[in-house]
Amino acid sequence: MTKSPSYRKIWNIAYPIILGSAIQNVIRITDTAFLGRVGETELGAAGIGSVFYMTFMMLGMGYGVGAQIMVARRYGQQRISEIGKTVEHAFYFLFVFAIIVIAGLNLSLSQIFSSVVSSENIRIATLDFLYIRIWGLVFAFTNFTFRGFYIGIGQTKVITITTAMMALVNVFLDYVLIFGKAGFPEMGIKGAALASVIAELVAMLTFIHYSLKRIDYKKFRLFTFQIFDRKLFGSVFNISLPVMLQNFLSFAGWMFFFLFVEKLGERALAVSNIIRSIYVIMLVPIMGYSFAANSLVSYVIGTGKPGEAMKVTKKALKLCIGSVALMVTIIIIIPTQILSVFTDNQQLIDESIPVLYVISGTSFLIGSGFVLFNTVSGTGNTKAAFFIESAVFVLYIFVTYYLAVILQTSIEMVWAVEFIYGGLIALISLLFLKYYPWQKKVV
How far apart are CA 366 and CA 28, in angstroms? Predict the structure, then answer.
């Protein structure tokens, strides 16, 4: 990496993440599209189940981002031999953590959904999905550790390769397991869950194979499995914990969102699951540029040039907003055709169009907010990022609850809460970067 990252450098880091995330979203699209042909109950249950799973999965992603910040900083400081040890300590923690989370969820899922889901059909289908899906956390957490390593050193093409493998496996297994094709049992929503777990396992094995065969892992001292270092673990954990909690809150917000929407009925929930699938596609370039900004900001600070950080952020913002504008243009031109990918129910399509226009508007604020927010994390001030997320989370939940449960308003009005979320994240992050002495943070 250069000390003054250009647009090309940002793009070179971001595009494999974007492409990899786009391919990964094939999993979500496939699940939604196939289950949309099974029934509205399965479609709604998969929406709740997927967001619930992702809420806990984001804990692992948060730790991976913390490791990524440390890796990028050490890479900028040319302390290369310390990188492998940092990554391995992330492996140690996340493996144990995944087992604890899975055990806890196995014991508590039934009680949780008995108290928060009104529809008995939705509750049963959601539990059928989650009792299988949660086993993917072991593989997902490992994959996030690898992602943190590769994004931290600026070699992100492997992310495209692993997610391509994951998507191919998932599409095939979704088809044969949901519908019972090619001699496989017809498992319905359980088949969608099992397909995703196996796909994540394949991605993990691909990461391991690539790391052993395609990079100089000895230079980074990767796979040496060094003795546990409490001081190093403490450093990584202190950086990662706020990111873990922030990511958890971010997706917990979505989890509450879907639980509140469920009070509006199965139709509103089905519409929201379709919109969610499109929304996460729109988040693909946003997350790519956000992660690139996060890594490069940490890197340039590590080289001793913190003044370059905001230059990186401004460039990432321009690229991000340009990509969002392109996607929104496509949505405005062919909304019906896009929605028909997810369902052949014309009523669902018609009711989804207004919500699709809402998220088209919110995506500009979300894009700006995520890039600025990841810049805050990239400076190493992850506790500040957590407090920003926490404050916005409380307001987001309150307004969503008020609109969906108290007022029982339209589904497009409920989705408009994303304007508040994106706008506040962008504004508070910008104020932090402008007025707080973040340059003094030592990682």
Answer: 20
